[in-house]
Amino acid sequence: xxxxxxxxxxxxxxxxxxxxxxxxxxxxxxxxxxxxxxxxxxxxxxxxxxxxxxxxxxxxxxxxxxxxxxxxxxxxxxxxxxxxxxxxxxxxxxxxxxxxxxxxxxxxxxxxxxxxxxxxxxxxxxxxxxxxxxxxxxxxxxxxxxxxxxxxxxxxxxxxxxxxxxxxxxxxxxxxxxxxxxxxxxxxxxxxxxxxxxxxxxxxxxxxxxxxxxxxxxxxxxxxxxxxxxxxxxxxxxxxxxxxxxxxxxxxxxxxxxxxxxxxxxxxxxxxxxxxxxxxxxxxxxxxxxxxxxxxxxxxxxxxx
Length: 305
Ligand code: NAD
What we know:
This protein has helices spanning 11-22, 57-64, 78-83, 85-106, 140-159, 184-194, 213-222, 242-253, 277-283, 291-304, and strands at residues 2-6, 26-31, 45-49, 68-71, 110-116, 162-168, 170-172, 199-201, 207-208, 210-212, 231-234, 240-241, 260-262. It is an alpha/beta fold and 305 residues long. The strands form 4 sheets. It has a 7-stranded parallel β-sheet with strand order 3-2-1-4-5-6-11, with helices on both faces.
């Protein structure tokens, strides 16, 4: 199969490209390298350095002639979407429309879209949260992803472009950028390796659903097989608070350092965990890597990088 991965030089995208190449597929990556790294793209894949908003994207997709496009490229920083919603929408909404138009024009069969389960539902008491829960995003980032999903549905109806949206929980694993604001596991793992203090925002009781990147890749591969394209949560259903996450990583590191507590982040979502029953039944997917195993792999990676 021929596949194109936008954002394929980034954290999740590059793991997906590795898996596609290993399975013998022909892979083209489109990434502007704003956050991704050339060295994360394996030798077996072709890299086109291009902004997904560029009008040249149509020609690039037509020339690559993929059967499936995995759309991972995005502005991923929730807080920066609050500071600059226009820039966020430019990449995550307009850029996605450009990707969908390019795919429809090039006769692509299916688009698999990286959406968010962590930011799309907003602060809800329904935990773990199913896909049927009304979406009430608390950030422009979440709104942009919801809007992009809606565009995907429209392209499916009017252009026959099959559209599968995967609403990822908090993804962690090797290669995640420890320098950004997201990626608490990467940040803690790096600091524990260096013997530097880790700072927990507020009391550390805010919960997230941490899903290992290899499981997210597996969900993307399963999205190729599903006969009724739909929206699926991809997570574990398990809530873990930041204090516990730190304690587990500290044990893996064999460190005796206690974390410092900084001020809480105003407006930060309190709880998040996704109900993944639909993915289990509809995608025949479920997470396979437990938290301690995933944390150890991630910790070991950051020790060697
Ligand atoms: P990442 O920043 O590592 O990867 C994104 C990639 O997209 C980078 O390589 C970047 O260079 C590229 N990119 C950004 N803007 C671009 C543009 N305009 N044109 C071309 N390329 C561009 O982030 P990630 O964590 O791997 O996220 C991948 C996808 O998964 C994103 O769509 C993100 O919104 C989504 N997602 C991630 C998480 C998570 O926990 N990491 C959770 C939910 C959803």
